[in-house]
Input
Amino acid sequence: MIKRRKSKEISIGNVKIGNNSPISVQSMCNTDTRNVSETLHQIQELAEAGCEIVRLAVLNKDAAEAIKQIVKLSPVPLVADIHFDYRLALQCINNGISALRLNPGNIGKREHTEQVVKLAKQQNIPIRIGVNAGSLEKILKEKDIPLAQKMVESAMGHIKILEDLDFDMIKISLKSSDVMTTIEAYRLMAEKVDYPLHLGVTEAGTLKGGIIKSAVGIGTLLAEGIGDTIRVSLTENPIEEVFAGYEILKSLKLRKRGVNFISCPTCGRTQIDLISLAKQVENRFKDLDKDITIATMGCAVNGPGEASHADFGIAGGIGEGYVFKKGEIVARVPEAELLDKLEEIIKFELK
Output
């Protein structure tokens, strides 16, 4: 059982972050926010995949204006990603956004920050301070200290600006494309403050490499009890980010959502197209929102035994296969009927 770090609780819309709240899964639209219909379509897809908070890029006044209509029709809370122009933050708050992502140090004069913080406080709008390793202040870049320490110093400077204005609805992220730098930065920050932490490895890459880097970085921190929300950043359809996020959380038993799929690696004993079969099983039951484990095993002799902890499973043989439940074989059918038989048995048992 992972003992989570104690943190303050904030709310982004109807989603609670920190304290003992479930670790939330976030993503970000890659649409042009000014295109309301396209953006809403992607938000809906993300929500259906289980995404609980969606961030939108707000590059200009037109994008900030579009927020008004998007917020009204969005099924999940939205975060406005703001850089440099404080007026966009004010506009987004007035248009109903649930949270902001900005760095108070990069939006100009202190009076501009004060205006944003004052309105955010009035409307109960949390602010995420997002520090990226590649965009640190010049004075910090020139310091002769480890990069992780520079990131933490940057975040602490931004935090102080907000705290001096009596604002504490804060969430923090410290992202680097280097996994170990990311881990160290979050570890350092976790010792300094009790604000909730949003985890992620930025610029992690394309699907395969990006998931591996994110799983190592995010997973290591979560296993240490650090982290209150996560985003798996991938150069891919953001739906994949949501899937990966839940898989990381499920592997650490931090969230229960949907089926836990397991399958054995192929070997010389396999007498069935196991790779194809495992993919078919995942596809067949991907929308089943039940906390169960389904196994796809390649060997009919010892497959059910090796996967005896699974609730249900199939094991292949030569032209046929077995359906099993908790390690006990309950049906023997031709290979072509395996999936249908498995589905029939699962539906019967879960009804």
Notes: The domain at 10-251 is CATH 3.20.20.20 (TIM Barrel).
